[in-house]
Amino acid sequence: MDKKKINIAIDGPAGAGKSTIAKGISKKLGFIYVDTGALYRAIAYYVLKKGKDPSLESDVEPFLSKIAVELKFIDGEQRVFVNDEDVSDKIRTPEVSMGSSAVSAIPKVREFLFELQRKIARENDVIMDGRDIGTVVLPNADLKIFLTATPEERARRRYNELKDKENSPTYEKILADIKIRDYNDSNRAVAPLKQADDAILLDTTDLSLEDSINKVVELVKKLPNQ
User: ∠ CA(100), CA(102), CA(106), 5° rounding?
Assistant: First the structure.
C-alpha cells in the first residue's frame, strides 16, 4: 500500500509571505509547492486580456470552458500556463492581483479550480497556499498554518519587492490595496478568508524569512507520519 501523501495548508491575507515561505519550506522538505493564488490570477489575466470585468460572473463564466490552466514544475519551479502560454510573470501585476480577488469570489471559478488542486494533493507531498486551503480545499490537511502580518508590514514587503520595477506603485497605494483586498477576501460570500479551527497562527511581522520557514519545518517534523 502506498504511503499517504503529506499535505500542508497555508492560509492568510495578501502579502503575508505565504508563497515565499511555502517555497522555502518545499525546498527544505522536498515537497511540491502549489501556489493556488496563481491559478486565480491566471483566470483573471485571461478575462482582463479579453477586455472583460473579472468581478462580473456574466463576464467570467463563459470563458471557463475555453481556459485550460496547468501547473508545470520546471527545474523545481512552478510555472503557470493558460492555453499553453506561460503566464507566470504576466500574472504578477497589481491589476491582475485585484482581478484575482474578484474572480475568486465567483463560485463556478472555485469549482473549476478545486479538482485540479485536490488532484495534485492526492498524488504528491504538497505544501499549498491560498485563502481557504485549510477550510475548504484541503480540510483534512496534516498541518494547517494561518500566516499573517500587519497590513503595514505586508505593504512594506510588497513595496520593496516592486520598487525597482517600471511603473511600480507607491507604498501608500499598496497599503490601500491590501486593506481593500483584506476586506473583500474576508467578507466574500463564498469561502471567505478565515483561520481554520485547527490551524496554527503564525504572525511573521517581526520574524525574518528564514525564521518563519524554520518554524513551519519544525512543525512538519513533529507530525506523526514524519
Answer: 105
Distance CA 61, CA 27 (A): 36
Residue 172's domain comprises 7-220
Query: Residue 1 falls within a domain, yes or no?
Result: no
Domain membership flag for residue 225? no
Cβ proximity of 24 and 127 under 8 Å: no
Confidence check: pLDDT of 1 > 60:
no
153-167, 182-196, 204-218 — most confident range: 204-218
Whether residue 122 lies inside any domain: the answer is: yes
Output the domain CATH number for residue 199.
Answer: 3.40.50.300
3-state secondary structure of 122: helix
pLDDT class of 192 with cuts at 50, 70, 90: confident
Task: Tell which residue, 157, 128, 161, has the closest CA to residue 142.
Answer: 128
